[in-house]
Amino acid sequence: MKTVVIVGGNRGIGLEFAKEYLKKDNNVVATYRDKTKLVALKKLQKKYPGKLTLRKLDVTNMNDIAKLRRGVKKVDLLILSAGVKGYPIPGTRPAGNTRLELQKALAVNTTGPDDIIRGFYKKLLHSDRCVVYLSSGVSSTQDNAGGGYHPYRISKAAGNAMIWNWNIEFQKDWIQRNGKDHEKVPCAFAICPGWVKTDMGGADARQSVEESVTAMSKVIDTVGKTKDAAGLYMYDGTKLETYKSESVLQVVGL
Question: 0.90 cut: is pTM over it?
Fold first, then answer.
């Protein structure tokens, strides 16, 4: 039985991921920041007794991350769903954004997830483990024609680079330890949920959280099997960006 850890699992997309993986008979660890917003998770605990564990986590707090690491003995799938826009007023252009807004976005959307992966690294360096970083279409440099969303766009673009770098590290360490048996190598990749009807996406969004998460879970299963993490995925399995994927066997000299 797999253990799925969902960071930011008490609302929106993270909550729907919790429902999705509980339905598939997995053990789920869902983190939350605000203990006053646990109604939905408490209902899931009653529906799936013994299957759902709740853990308090502020992704910017190293003590919280350390407690989470100590409390979770095994992780097969780590989903990094927590995120913030980083700007208070929709439509604000870059000249109107502040350094503090960018710092907050980077702390939650980039450095926090990075710290979590680092904390769980040894537990993730096992057969077929997977890390999924919830990104955004606005993170794509290739697809940016309209600008705006400055703190959010920058922090998610940095997150894409972060998660791809971790994927390379997983491959290098796995191959150094296990030789050419790279079919079960751990992987890490970024996926965009699309424009979803959540607190962040708004009521005018095109997709429900159920539609987005159902589609993304299929992509997660596929990437977990194929190990094709070399790109920024959309929820439907297409790639918004494709990364150069040099043979890791050559990089580590095998």
Answer: yes
